[in-house]
Each structure stands twice: as C-alpha cells, then as structure tokens.
Amino acid sequence: MNKYIKKLEELKLVGFRVVCEGDQYINEIPKAAKRLQDRTSEIQHVLNSGKQVGAFVVEETTPEDEGYWVCVQVEEFAQIPEGMVTLTIPPQKYAAIMHKDSSHLIGQSYETLHKWIAEHGMKRSLRGWNLEFYQSVDPGSAQLEVELCDSIHA
C-alpha cells in the first residue's frame, strides 16, 4: 500500500453528524452515508461530484468534537438543508493511504499508516481532524475504496 504526505487547505463540509456508542459506528456510518447520498441534490455548491468525506477527531477535547461526520465538500455554505450540519476543517497536513478492501479491515490500513508515520519520525495530531475521502460510495457494499488521511504535526 502506497503511503504519502498530503497538505490540504481549508475544507467546508455539509452533511450528517453521527454520535453513538463506539461499537455502533460500523452500523450507523453506512446509514448516514445512504441518507446523504439520497439528499446530496439538496445541498448547494457541492464540489468533487458529491463524493463523500468522513471527518473525526481521535481525542475529542469538547462534546462538539465527538462523533463522525459524513459529508460532501462545498465551495461555500448556503441554505443548509434541514437536519444537516456544517463543518469547517482548517488547513492541515496528513499522512495518507488508500484503503481498497472490506470496511471491516479499515483498522488494518490505519495500523499500517500509523506504523509508517512512526517509522518516518512524524507525530500524529490526535486532536486534529482526520479525513476519509470516499472514492466510491455504495452503502450496501462491504467493500470500500477510501483515502485515509491521518492528521500529523507540520
């Protein structure tokens, strides 16, 4: 698996926030992804053909940071659809890897990436936003193609 460094400017996201017990995210995130897929046409100024973006913080410092956001990237915020939320991700540097496998094996891809980060003398930013860029979304499929971006210190 190819690992690399990626620097992103500010991202504006619109979608759904999922907050549940830790072991329920595996069930609740696909439900939110399907809901977002069904309602993406309601969101204005969508970028990247509406490809979904997941966002989360490893070590939340406030209740507002808790959970997982299933979103699409937008150019600007305008008339947010009912029941949806906005999230602004500040400019950040990431270590990244492409995961093309079962959703149940995503943890192994993260372990591989975390090992690579440590081996190259970098430090994870546990309070920074981590991003998951879904290349294809089929909420009914167990297979994922997703770019995992783990926040690192610049």
Explain what you see.
This protein is of the alpha+beta class. It has a single domain, classed as Multidrug-efflux Transporter 1 Regulator Bmrr, Chain A, CATH 3.20.80. It is built from two helices and eight strands. The protein has an eight-stranded antiparallel β-sheet with strand order 1-6-8-7-3-4-2-5, covered by helices on one side. The mean pLDDT is about 95.
Characteristics of this structure?
AraC_E-bd; Multidrug-efflux Transporter 1 Regulator Bmrr, Chain A; Reg_factor_effector_dom_sf; 8-stranded antiparallel β-sheet; 154 residues; 40% strand; alpha+beta
Task: Give the arrangement of secondary structure elements.
Elements: E1 3-8, E2 11-18, H1 25-39, E3 52-57, E4 68-74, E5 85-89, E6 92-102, H2 106-119, E7 129-136, E8 143-152
Q: Residue share in helices?
A: 10-25%
List the helices and strands in order.
EEHEEEEHEE
Q: If you average the pLDDT, what whole number results?
A: 93
Basic shape: globular
Model regions low in confidence, pLDDT < 50 over at least 5 residues? none
**What CATH architecture would you give?**
Alpha-Beta Barrel
In the CATH scheme, what's the topology name? Multidrug-efflux Transporter 1 Regulator Bmrr, Chain A
In the sheet with the most strands, the strands line up as 1-6-8-7-3-4-2-5
The CATH homologous superfamily name equals Regulatory factor, effector binding domain
Number of helices: 2
